[in-house]
Specification:
heterodimer, A: 84 residues, 87% helix, B: 385 residues, two-stranded antiparallel sheet, 15 helices, 8 strands
Chain lengths: 84, 385
């Protein structure tokens, strides 16, 4: 796999893992109950956490697959060119 | 591929192609199974919702900033849980034994003074006392619909007495109202709530074998007054005395009414579904329902939930039931994908739930994704729509 887009794959794996793991984390900390809580302390960290999570989720679903596919196609083209 | 332009073209093409295919595929997992009443798909969410209500959902669990809304949310959670579990038991009778006790627990809460405190405070007297006398308290249509679903599955339920008295009270109030509407709270009247009242009376009569009440035909015919001819959406609020709309047509109330009226009149419910179909928007396989029709602007409130770029959260979620009931799998799947994208399904040992739904959101999604006409086959002879 020499020359494989390793950085792209690692970054993609991290974002995908954050998408899945973040959902369970926010579920465990009680996102909805926390957002509805009258205590302002919970809002201080839950609102940015939820916003960050949705950025990660939208990136994981709408951006990451295309970036990985694009990198993989270019890598295959480059490898074919080198072998010829 | 040496050219910089060519390399970027490949990247952009891959990005666009994947964005058009992958998210809708991932978020659509399970949607077709829910549409076809698949046991595993329904039971995962049903178990989680059942666990949630039996572990103690009360008005004190919610903190919307308004005691009335906190109470309404707890009330809504018990109503939607009963309806959802009832739908699941109708589709899979082997689950009836497991879910009827949970539905009875919800009925206990729905008829308790603490859950009804928000209505008692608004009216100055408890809505469930002195039945079948009294006036107003239109929110009790939700309780009555839930009791009807329980009665359908458990005819000998201990809530049969209160169900009969409440139905009689709501029927008297509706029959006495000149435009088929009475107040939910003093000075506040909502056609969607009255759809719930009418649907609940029809479901009661189905469950008990009572012949259809003659005045219900008039309600059906008169409901057109509350549907905006331009958009096909129902007006959100009305003036019960003047018989005139008191606000714009909106999709959140329309979607709720389409569900409730499915127990009374399939055609009327379908007519509302057609209005919702016209309010449908979306992209890349994801569907939303716009809260306000063209020509009307508005922000979100406690009924609609957040309105983002015109799309209503409640309208989108509630419209799942109408899409399912009226045979629109394309709309159902598209709306479900949106619910999954932002609701974020998580798998737990006790089932499946939506991370951002909370008790009320999960109960609503259960009721809306499992809606069915299978209740008809349980009607006693002489009853039913």
């Amino acid at each position: 796999m020499k020359g494989a887009p390793k950085r792209t794959l690692i970054l993609a794996a991290v974002i995908l893992a954050a998408n899945v793991g973040g959902a369970y984390l926010l579920d465990a900390v009680g996102l909805v109950q926390g957002l509805l809580s009258p205590s302002g302390a919970a809002l201080l960290y839950l609102v940015p956490l939820a916003a960050l999570y949705y950025v990660v989720r939208l990136t994981a679903l709408f951006v990451v697959p295309g970036v990985v596919l694009g990198a993989a196609v270019l890598w295959l083209f480059d490898r074919r060119r080198v072998s010829h | 591929m040496k050219s910089r332009v060519a390399r970027w073209s490949v990247r952009v093409a891959a990005l666009v192609a994947c964005a058009a295919v992958v998210p809708q595929t991932v978020c659509g997992v399970g949607a077709a199974d829910l549409y076809s009443d698949d046991l595993a798909a329904q039971e995962g969410l049903a178990r989680q919702v059942a666990v949630s209500v039996t572990s103690g959902v009360a008005a004190s669990s919610f903190h919307t900033g308004s005691p009335r809304f906190d109470g309404e949310w707890a009330f809504g959670t018990f109503t939607m849980t009963t309806m959802g579990l009832g739908h699941v038991a109708l589709s899979h009778p082997e689950l009836r034994e497991a879910y009827v006790p949970v539905m009875e627990r919800c009925a206990e809460e729905l008829t308790s003074p603490s859950t009804n405190a928000f209505g008692t405070e608004a009216w100055g007297s408890p809505g469930l006392e002195g039945l079948p006398g009294g006036e107003g308290h239109g929110y009790l249509g939700y309780t009555n619909l839930a009791l009807g679903m329980l009665r359908l599955l458990a005819p000998e339920t201990r809530f049969a007495g209160v169900h009969d008295r409440l139905t009689e009270a709501l029927a008297r109030r509706m029959e006495a109202s000149p435009y088929g509407l009475f107040e939910t709270y003093p000075g506040e009247t909502y056609p969607a709530d009255m759809s719930m009242v009418a649907g609940s009376i029809a479901l009661h009569d189905c469950a008990t074998g009572r012949a259809e009440r003659p005045w219900l035909a008039g309600f059906r015919a008169g409901f057109s007054r509350w549907i905006d001819p331009g958009s096909g959406l129902a007006y959100q609020a009305a003036d019960a005395k003047a018989g005139a709309p008191a606000g714009p047509p909106r999709a959140s109330g329309t979607a709720l009414a389409a569900y409730a009226l499915s127990f009374l009149d399939e055609g009327l419910s379908k007519r509302l579904h057609e209005g919702l179909s016209r309010a449908r928007g979306g992209a890349l396989g994801f569907g939303v329902v716009r809260e306000y029709p063209e020509g009307h602007e508005g922000s979100g409130d406690i009924d609609s939930g957040p309105v983002v770029l015109g799309a209503g959260v409640s309208a989108t979620g509630f419209s799942l039931s109408a899409a399912k009931l009226h045979g629109d799998p394309g709309m159902f799947v598209a709306l479900y994908r949106t619910a999954a994208l932002f609701g974020v399904p998580v798998q737990k040992p006790s089932g499946r739930r939506f991370m951002s739904g909370g008790p009320l959101g999960n109960a609503i999604l259960l009721a809306m994704t499992t809606a069915t006409f299978k209740w008809r086959s349980h009607c006693k002879k002489g009853g039913g729509a």
